[in-house]
Amino acid sequence: MLTLVFSVGAIIAISFAHWIYNWRNPKCDGQLPPGSMGWPLLGETLQFFAPNTTHDIPPFVKKRMEKYGPIFRTSIVGRPVIMSADSDLNYFIFQQEGQLFQSWYPDTFTEIFGRQNVGSLHGFMYKYLKNMVLNLFGPESLKKMLPEVEEAANRNLQRWSCQENVEIKESTARMIFDLTAKKLISYDSEKSPENLRENFVAFIQGLISFPLDVPGTAYHKCLQGRKKAMKMLKNLLQERCENPRKQQTDFFDYVLQELKREDTILTEAIALDLMFVLLFASFETTSLAITLAIKFLTDHPLVLKQLKEEHEAIIRRRQNPESGVTWQEYKSMTFTFQFINETVRLANIVPGIFRKTLRDIKFKGYTIPAGWAVMVCPPAVHLNPSRYTDPLEFNPWRWEGVELHGATRNFMAFGGGMRLCVGTDFTKVQMAVFLHSLVTKYKWKLTRGGQTLRTPGLQFPEGLHIHVTEKNEGNAAAE
Ligand code: HEM
Ligand SMILES: *[C@@H]1O[C@H](CO)[C@@H](O)[C@H](O)[C@H]1NC(C)=O
Ligand SMILES: *[C@@H]1O[C@H](CO)[C@@H](O)[C@H](O)[C@H]1NC(C)=O
């Protein structure tokens, strides 16, 4: 009897040791990149998400780069992952989209975003949806949108200047959400009985949380938020279906027309998922970028001075100073674009871009096995001292004349290759036009907050509170 207990015990112990051994030493037909797989199942997930206040390369990545080099292996959210801080590998990954690599995001993300969102669609379907989106946010549409963006900026700034205190992260998120929702689905937050954005806020708060779906948890609220938002979107689409409009002006019109076609592969479910992703992708990212931009301007008076000069010169060149920003003026905002580049370089709003390998891949002597996840780490590129001197320094002037030496390999705030962010131009228009109104008509003082935290995504735990006042016309020149 005793021997039986011993041998069963021994077998269990040996299989367990064997399992741990396999966990630590994954099978690979070649040389795996160095690194540690952490604890069984948990991997290095906790270390990866550990909050830190540094603007530098996330400590998780930095420590491992020092130990193993720019390409290393780890395990997060239950998956073996190769992390890349190597600009050649990053470039290769972006170029080989759809051939050797495919978009992949952790399962909790897929669960939350719906299965058919843009991020996880492939091939034909994906190109087709992308064209629909580009139609709405491409240069031609943006040209027409310019006055609307400016009007929204002016209206909001005017309102803020009547308040004692504005929290910028929340206020810009509201401004951008309202604008995007109006463009996409003609949703007017002031006329609607239900608050669509509220559901998105609940959704975002639980986005990066432990995936336990029981009442009370952040994850549960997140799923509920999505459910309610999806229901509202569905009702809005239904309404439009019953009252079609003559002129096609928004995404719903576009979707309805497409759904009527016989050869279409679009379904209502896909259209609604896409709508959700677009609304989400647009307001959270851009409001973070604007909030950080205001913080940088507050801390760097010389930058603010030059930005003001650029925008005041634009107004001086106009026949009528009250006329709105034209496309030509927008295109001429050279320093503003340098400022925006520098802001998103340091913001690192997207700390990781995920892909999955479709085949075994050989690169620089290493083999990345098929089916593994790969994470491109933009901060490691944006904060690399051999690409950007004094990388932690906020210095918009470093972008002067940068077009000359093709910087795309060293700049991936909006991703790269085929999946480059479709909202890039929209973001730039919104930021530039908002800054134009802000620096020409208003001044502000920081009142509270402004501290940043990375988990590893950028956050403002206490927000950024400012006091905005309208510039007194008579003093404008002296400001
Ligand atoms: C500061 C603002 C923004 C940043 C930093 C940003 C960043 C990114 C990045 C890095 C990607 C690539 C993801 C990947 O390769 O897996 C991406 C994709 C995407 N972005 Fe943005 N984005 C911003 C604003 C926006 C806006 C305003 C919209 C919507 C109008 C938008 C819509 C999308 C969509 C739909 C995709 C998926 C495209 C695809 O998979 O092909 N983004 N974004
Ligand atoms: C940030 O990470 C560094 C390096 O791992 C660590 O020494 C420091 O304590 C962390 N800081 C915070 C605020 O968590
Ligand atoms: C901003 O960065 C992009 C990507 O590297 C580059 O093409 C563009 O020229 C930069 N803009 C400015 C004004 O430096």
Automatic annotation (TrEMBL):
Heme binds at C421. GO terms for biological process: brassinosteroid biosynthetic process; brassinosteroid homeostasis; sterol metabolic process. It is found in: Membrane. It is a single-pass membrane protein. Keywords: Heme, Iron, Membrane, Metal-binding, Monooxygenase, Oxidoreductase, Transmembrane, Transmembrane helix. Its cofactor is heme. SUPFAM superfamilies: Cytochrome P450. GO terms for molecular function: heme binding; iron ion binding; monooxygenase activity; oxidoreductase activity, acting on paired donors, with incorporation or reduction of molecular oxygen. It comes from the Eukaryota. Pfam families: p450. One of its GO terms (cellular component) is membrane. Belongs to the cytochrome P450 family. This is Oxygenase. It comes from Lithospermum erythrorhizon.
